[in-house]
Amino acid sequence: MKKTGNNQPAARTTPRPRRRIVLLAFGATFAIALGGAAFSYRNHVSAASLAHRYTDSNQPPITLDPLAFEGEARESYKIAREHPELLARLHCYCNCDVKLGHRNLLDCYRDTHAASCGICMGEARDAEQMSKQGSSIDDIRDALKSRYENQE
Prior knowledge:
There is one protein chain. By secondary structure, this protein is mainly alpha-helical. The chain has two domains: 13-44; 47-148, no CATH class. The protein is built from seven helices and no strands.
């Protein structure tokens, strides 16, 4: 150990226990945040890519089971399950993007929202019909916008 001019040992240069705790806490917080960000990024996928993944039998379905509903709701959930790539490319005009954070019409069918929303059910039905008639996605978007935009 070094001695100072008055034969006293020099002060220790190792961190104090409190400083170690702060550094460990900071490191742990950083590791948790980094892990959460990596998990979030890994699980963040667009609706279109989810629609594409639906065709893989190893993936869970991206809509609720149509058999859980009756009548018109069952039919619209069936449409969503059969045409997720179409609904993922369409805006829903029931204002659920603001109220529920939905990003597209397909999101309405990931929960029970669409079962009680005439706009969601009507949009899915109209989109499927127009798609079967050969309408382009832009034509379908324009038709849905003019038909449903101010209905809420």
